[in-house]
Structures are given as structure tokens and as C-alpha cells.
Amino acid sequence: MSLSLDADQLDRYSRHVIMDEVGPAGQKRLLDGRALVIGAGGLGAPVIQYLAAAGVGTLGIVDDDVVERSNLQRQVIHGDADVGEPKVESAARYVDRLNPDIDVETHETRLDEGNVRELIAGYDLVVDCADNFRTRYVVNDAARIEGLPVVHGAIYKFEGQATTLVPGGPCYRCLFPEAPEPGTVPDCAATGVLGVLPGTVGCIQATEAIKLLVDVGEPLDGRLLFYDAMDVSFESVPFRKNPDCPVCGDDGIETLDGIDYTGGCRVNAD
Asked: Which residues form the THIF-type NAD/FAD binding fold domain (predicted)?
């Protein structure tokens, strides 16, 4: 890996380059890095914004939705002029304006069990900014098979959570073995969400992704970080790998075949 940075890059990333923990080598790791962001909405917006600013050289963005005016209260990479446009295209334009070093790979599709392994192939890590349980379980299961880390985030009204799921450590199913039944957990369209909340949680996710790409610090492996905006409090709850986990346990899966991603997203015992 060449450590050479051109004059513009030395200027743009100077605050990284002068850090002992990053330096030219760490910045080159970022520029050579490939991160896939699932969702270009509330959480995806700050993740895309800060990974692009940091110089993560290739950003993949997966989203099948279009920009709506109600998104603009929190999805800060989209603007009024983008209403009606695909979110992946709006996000790509934002990144292009922010940092010409970044290659954006847009995937205007809904991620599911049929295309997930093809979508995540070739990336160094996945940042899970999905807004539904089905996608979270599909991403977790496929990434574990492919040996990719996943930086997870979720938000609800005034509360958020984040964790990092690395190969060899506990996975999302070790935390939540099954999804709640559809309709039992309302989404933000029904309950609302504080506009700045995804910015806080998304910045934590971007931080974790950058640390993984640079290979510095300790990730949120085996720790679920809770944030409550009402009293500005953080709580870190440890969790362990479940040896009986059907995905990452001693008899973990090697394929997504046979997994029912409706209802509780259960892995069949046989």
C-alpha cells in the first residue's frame, strides 16, 4: 500500500495526518477503504456525511426510497430541491460536492435475503442504518457468513443505541434472538423522532467505522451503547456471544437458505 498523499489530500486531511493514531498511513487506509451504508435516511445521512468528509474512498449506499419533505427535519444530506428524487442519487450528489476523492456506488434497491450477499461483497464493513428489523437480521446474518463487521444503530423518539458486531464476537442475534412481531414496535412515522437524535447516533456509527478502517481504538464489540437525549445520558451494557446462537454459535449457519425473515426472523432448527 502506497502511503503517498497528494498536496490537496495533505491539506484536506491535515488534522488526521498530524495525529499519531492516524497519520499518513491511517489516512491512506481510509482512502483505500470501502464501506457500505444500508439506508440513506436519518442515521445514514450523518454516517455518509462524516465518512465522506473523513476520506473513506468508496462509499456504497443502499436505499430504494425517495426524498420526502418530512425527511428534511433530520436527514441532513437531502434538501428541498431533492424532494421526489431517489435518496441514493441525492446522497451521491451531496458526497460529490463535499469531497471529490470519494467514489460513490449507488444501489437503488431494497436489500433482502435474495440480494444481500451480492450487495455486501467487496466491502470492508457494513454500516447498518436500516429502519426495520427484517433488514437488520438479514444484514447481520449475511455479514457473519461473509466475515464482515457491522456497525449497528437504531433510534426511537428520544433514544438511540449503537453497537459494533465483529467476526468472532457476538452478533445481533446474541442480543435479540428474534424480532418482535410486525406491528408491535411503531416506526417514527407513527411516533415521531427528535430531529437531532439520528445525528448523535449516526456520528457514533461513523466513529466506529473509521476506527475499524484505521484499526485504532476499541470498538463497541460486545457492548450495546444506549443514549437518552432527554437527560443526555449514555449507558454501556455488555453482552456476550451465545454459544447456541443459530448464526454465530458453534453450529452457525453457512447460508441464508431456509431462514424465514417474516415475523420473528427465526432460523429454522434443522
From this structure: 13-247
